[in-house]
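pinging the channel bc i need a second pair of eyes. not urgent but kinda urgent?? the chain im working w is below, pasted from the shared doc
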Amino acid sequence: MQPDPVVLAHPSGARAELHLHGAHVTRWTGPGGEELLFLSERSRWEPGVPIRGGVPVIFPQFAEQGPLPKHGFARTAQWELAATGTVGGAATALLRLADDPATRELWPHPFRAELAVVLDEALGITLRVANSGSEPLSFTAALHTYLRVADVREVALEGLAGVRYRDKLQGGAERVEEREVVTVAGETDRVYAGAPDRLRVHDRAVGRTLVLEKDGFPDAVVWNPWAEGAGALPDLGDDEYLRMLCVEPGAVTEPVRLAPGEEWSGTQRLRGESGD
């Protein structure tokens, strides 16, 4: 059963919903009421299980790049709601997570993490991590953003031309993106290293464009499981892959390293672009 979310609303008509389970933004509707994040109808709302869709928080390990469970533990942890309010006209929420015996059993580092969500006509999400221990620590992280699209085969992603990427489906082979416009016609799982801080996603089937702006996250991940991959995921419907594209800001290719007392932050801002 889906628990009651924390709801943010803006006078423009934009709304967002987030859950303490995983500090997970599950819905974002624009001022016109359009759903802009994908959320699987088969998501399992169970303790210890990640939600399929929205914006999962990936920390302290991206994918299988280390000894932890895939994508780390933040997306299945129970976060604390520290505050909600209004800042400069925007609706805001702040969630917190700190190390405890369960996290230290998996990852033996004291830390503090915060997720700040800011909603106006756009959706801003900032992940902050502080090293609260006495030894250095390192981690990888991402905001695993599932964008809702009408038909992923009609989506055009701009901004990655000339960027070097690692292709998981080709055994991690490194290549340079030669296309001015990236399209998806099959299973895709790529990490673009040093990606530009501004990307544009054209949902051509409905004539909508989203702009993704990032700061502090050096990389960008593009993922879609396609039909065979979707069939292997029990919390994703067989045809739901057609209605989603993950475009994720991340610190993936090189770990973030923090000395005792140091902090890091990465921000993503999503907004609609008029005139398309």
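so DSSP finds two helices and 20 strands in the chain. and The longest strand covers residues 244-258. — does that match what u expected or am i reading it wrong
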